Amino acid sequence: MKNLFAAVVALLLPFVASAQFSVSGKITTQSGNVLPGATISITKTAQSAVADANGEYTLSNLAAGSYTVKTSYIGFVTVSKNVVLTSNLMLNFELATESVQTEEVIVTATRAGKNSPTAFTNLSKKDIEKNNFGQDLPYLLNQTPSVVVTSDAGAGVGYTGIRIRGSDPTRINVTINGIPYNDSESQGSFFVDIPDIASSVNNIQVQRGVGTSTNGAGAFGGSINIQTATRRDSAYAELNNSSGSFNTVKNTVSLGTGLLGGHFIFDGRLSRIHSDGYINRASSNLKSYFLSGGYYGKNTTIKANVFTGYERTYQAWNGVPDYEILNNRRYNEYTYENQVDDYTQNHYQLLIDHRLTDKLSFSGALHYTKGRGYYEEFKEDAAVEDYGLAPVIYGNDTIYTTDLVRRRWLDNDFYGVTYALKYLPTNNLNLNLGGAYNQYEGNHFGQIIYSKESIGINPEHEYYREHAKKNDFNIFARGELTLNNIVLYADMQYRHIYYSFLGFDRNLNNIQQDATLNFFNPKAGITYKLDDRQNIYASFAVGNREPNRNDYTNSSPQSRPKHETLYDFEAGYRAGGGRLSGGINAFYMLYNNQLIVTGQLNDVGAAIRRNVKDSYRAGIEIDGNLKLTDRLSWAVTASISTNKIKNYGQFFYNYDDDSLVELQLKKTTIAFSPSFIGSSTIAFSPIKGGEIALLSKYVSSQFLDNTMNTNPAGFSTDPSLAGNAYAVNRLISGYFVNDLRVRYNFTTRAIKNIGLGLQVNNLFNEKYEASGATYPSLSGGNIYNYNYFFVQATRNFMASLSLSF
């Protein structure tokens, strides 16, 4: 209690800490390259720090006196410096290369470097920790350029979504340590299946556009490249607890042995997150663990990672109907007690890095992911014929429909190998050869676990079963050649896909069939280095992407869509270091055969995505970080874009005669593509170890479909007018949301770090919706819009306490 009281006093009365000093600086190689992840410690104290993405560190709250400051990084000689501290000290280190194997070659092989002609943002462990109060990973990326996030439950815990440049999660490539994370069939990334993964992450790179060649699904809007925790030489124990609105609680325990015997390290994390959600009954119960063991030799590093996530979430997938929003923003149409999604995902990774020579390094990974779970739902008055059953006759009564409860299962296995070779023949040439072979097997099946009427089935009656198999092979080569101030970049990838699935044949019989696709994805660019801090660049890249599971299973060969192709042009300027850093990037993303939901039905009667021949996204992205003073900084991003489809046809189902009516538009805006996205973070440090930050986010209006319908704005409160075009529209209004974050860290003799945090989300109580869905139709000559919106939480808070030993 004394320490807690002292912390509060120190945060409110800065002069209490006036006798405390700090040591800060930058860790680089002798050639000037920064070393993010380097460890800095002060001997005879419990203090240590890890250099951020810019190689910078800070050790705070030090009393005046003599100290020895030591920095180390695997592959480099450890350096110690003796200092006498009488004021704040700037202390930089240059580390010389040591004959020890460096790690994570396979991660860097799929990443953009500082001279790459690619738009990207790096987030360090420190950046991630600042916002890690328990919300899902997409929310920790919310302040990066061109990003829009949403939450089904409204508060960022449970099912969440992320869009980059308007592209949905199925078009965003995600890797963890270079290993693909996107689901092989749906191509989406479900971060709810790996809850609190952020607590085991060392850094993240977010690329926009096609980006560099990577493993897994094609990047049509961006890539999220995640690297989990790296080497920590000192033993540690950490407790992180958060609690706040909607009965949200997060508990995390992390342990590490540090370097044992000069070669071995073991780390572990155990997490639990619970939230009732902002939306009624949209609860989340999440559990996870992360275990890692590593061997660090002179030329070889071997790491084994095992991590598991379990989620049980009450469904809020459909959003809130438009006519309910003004009456009850927290409305959930589901009331059945077990309307839940229940899924477990286990990940196993074996990572090997080996330095073959001083100029050649190899990295490989074996991986296996096991997933199994179901979603359960109540179906009222369901037709028994829809479940492959004949109507049941009892005397004079015939049962055609009944209330029932069903479970739809997914039992899948994903395994394979990834590899990378990095060759540095000279200081001016950097070559990478990498690739992967991955195999997916998924069993989809459904069960009826309860029926109100007796329909002649056994318990857990199975009414369908489908098996899918997908092989994914790719190989890529990338090179960077430096000629004075010019860097030439080339990247080529070949990808082969084989997919076997249960789908309709030419005669509309549902049989097992297959599809094979081959893609060539070239990329090229040039960078001109104005000086050590600044460069300008331009690039062109081609990306190809296969249709998803539903595109195949809900069509016949005659109606099956083609694959999509993206031609991505990027050009920009960026500057790093100093008091002002950031850049400006212009992009033009031209799509050929982009797949879009149009309301059209195919030859098997299913709603389909349709290839749209010509569409594009064009815009400008700006990001900057201004250090106004040593205590005040301002980070800002802005994205201005136009997102269009040419010659688009939207189809409306006409209930009067069961026909489809087409609306032709010469040029229209792509759905879920706001023309402006902006963010701002103003951070002020009143004392060392303390920070107050205002995080702002503005997203302009966006459409639920591709028709640009805005007749007229507003929601109806009359359920009898639900869907009427004169009561609602197909538009998501723009919103401006502000969060307040307060952090304070201090040390005691017994505890290395005590961290206090408070985050007030939606500080000014904005009522807004971040996403939604629409199902327009025709009846009686009128257009009816059945709109659903994902309503986000009003003002709410999270408080945290962390202890490091």
From TrEMBL:
Entries under Pfam families matching the protein: CarbopepD_reg_2, Plug, TonB_dep_Rec_b-barrel
What molecular functions are annotated in GO for this chain? siderophore uptake transmembrane transporter activity
Query: Residue ranges of the TonB-dependent receptor-like beta-barrel domain?
Result: 299-763
Q: Which Gene3D superfamilies match?
A: Carboxypeptidase-like, regulatory domain, TonB-dependent receptor, beta-barrel domain, TonB-dependent receptor, plug domain
> What's the chief localization of this chain?
membrane
Q: What is this protein called?
A: TonB-dependent receptor
**What GO CC terms are in its UniProt record?**
cell outer membrane
Question: Which family is it part of?
Answer: Belongs to the TonB-dependent receptor family.
Give its localization: Cell outer membrane
Per UniProt, residues of the TonB-dependent receptor plug domain are 114-222
- What range does the record give for the signal peptide? 1-19
InterPro entries per the UniProt record, alphabetical: Beta-barrel_TonB, Beta-barrel_TonB_sf, CarboxyPept-like_regulatory, Plug_dom, Plug_dom_sf, TonB-dep_rcpt-like
Q: Native species of this protein?
A: Mucilaginibacter hurinus
UniProt topology in membrane: Multi-pass membrane protein
Give the record's keywords alphabetically.
Answer: Cell outer membrane, Ion transport, Iron, Iron transport, Membrane, Receptor, Signal, TonB box, Transmembrane, Transmembrane beta strand, Transport
